[in-house]
Amino acid sequence: MELEADKDFLMAVMNEAILHQKNDIAVRSVLLDLDLMKIDMMKQRIDSIARLEDFDSVISNIRLRLANEALRSDLPSYSDFREVFQSSVLLPENLGELFSEIKDIEERKSDPYKNPRQKCLGIDTNIAYRRLLSRLLAYGGPQRPRDINFRCVQILLPSIVEEEISARVGRKYTGKDVDELGEALGSQRFVRSFLNCCYKDGRRALNAQSELRILKEKYNCWDVRGGSFLEDKEKRDVEIIRALANHASSQYLDLVYLTSDDKSLAHAVAYKVRSLGLRYPREIPSKLTADPWLLVELLYDLSIVFGAISLKGLGVVVMGDWSGKTTEDYHRERVKLVVEENSSFRRVLEKDHRILARLESAVDLRRIA
């Protein structure tokens, strides 16, 4: 059985697992045939997390069987795995500093006569890829201030950032690619579903585009024109900062430039732009607890980067991409669930999916926030 749903349906899957006393779930990469981690659903705890050596052993063996260098580079790596954690459950170590800036923006907005010079946040491309600002909407941790109004937060979105992301949405799997990948992996079952789908970099870029779409819906987001899209990345970073600085100056705004890139911070200093460098944990801890809604984000991002993940014990495969998935599906953050015929969750997930579909036909649930 196959079900297409918004990513929030993954919360229904996790709730059903708890109700059916399936508290321990192993998450496995379908393509790499590698256990990525285990989740204790009752405690929202993640452990048995795959390490660098686990990836190296598996990927090196697969690469030996691939002649296509592009396919070799496309295999999800430990670095990709770590970035997925950083874009979901491993929030910046200095998150409190960002919330302080957001509260200051909100306070200035509440009294524009007292504070005629408003403050705004300008974002670098890596902030879109890490999906930080949209994930703050779901974050319910202790560092989040009470009653925060994200719609008051002004975000400056440089056109160069959008161009940089769009440029990565390119190469797709051909029939030849799928055949070679299937032979190397020793399985064609899910690989055939990737025909005409984007390579990993394209999937990640489409995910970053989803972030920009949410920013425009949930924040006070302004498009910033100006600057040139240059081939050299370092020069492109300078163009982003220059465009933001020029716009903030012309609109009489106090700009705070958000980035997780040390080199971009150095460029910001040169242009006298106040910046906030977000510091992410460099390594994934051996175990951690996570906000349940951020667990949904983790599973979703894993399905995007790894193409498909299996929830062992539930008989469910979550596909982040498949032949026929549209750009609109990406922007709506849709997934496909493949439920095994002998899975005890088959009927109950089908029922949950049907109920939610009826609710969505009556009310746009995405507008309820």
TL;DR?
The protein is an alpha/beta fold. The chain has helices spanning 9-19, 52-64, 69-74, 78-86, 95-110, 125-130, 132-138, 159-166, 175-185, 200-218, 233-250, 262-270, 292-305, 327-331, 346-362, and strands at residues 2-6, 24-29, 34-40, 45-47, 118-123, 154-158, 220-224, 253-259, 275-277, 288-289, 308-312, 316-319, 334-339. An eight-stranded antiparallel β-sheet has the order 1-13-12-11-2-3-4-10. The protein has a five-stranded parallel β-sheet with strand order 7-6-5-8-9, with helices on both faces.
How many strand units?
13
For the sheet with most strands, the description reads:
8 strands, antiparallel
Helix and strand run: EHEEEHHHHEHHEHHHEHEHEEHEEHEH
**Strand line-up of the largest beta sheet:** 1-13-12-11-2-3-4-10
Average pLDDT score? 91
| Proportion in helices | 40-55%
Distance between the termini: 31 Å
Q: Low-confidence parts lasting 5 or more residues at pLDDT below 50?
A: none
Whole-number radius of gyration?
21 Å
